[in-house]
């Protein structure tokens, strides 16, 4: 295998990733965080997620890491629950043209 090629294409190629964390510990509290970003690897995208939502919070990667999902491209299906089709169209265009992009969306609530 060519060392300059990874599973998503040539190493160093900038790609769009959607990262999503959905957490509910007790059924009363909910935490949702989403990030769309341009990165050269899934690991870089994951790092950007943790820096965006959890910078300086020791243990967050270990505690929430199992629930973090990463998808290549703009995950329109998941984001469509919260964003309009027109917004998603614009996000896809911007992400495909951008050298750097970070779009984050997050919320938490507790019903107790």
Automatic annotation (TrEMBL):
Superkingdom assignment: Bacteria
Annotated source species: Deinococcus radiopugnans ATCC 19172
Upper lineage: Bacteria, Thermotogati, Deinococcota, Deinococci, Deinococcales
The protein, known as: Uncharacterized protein
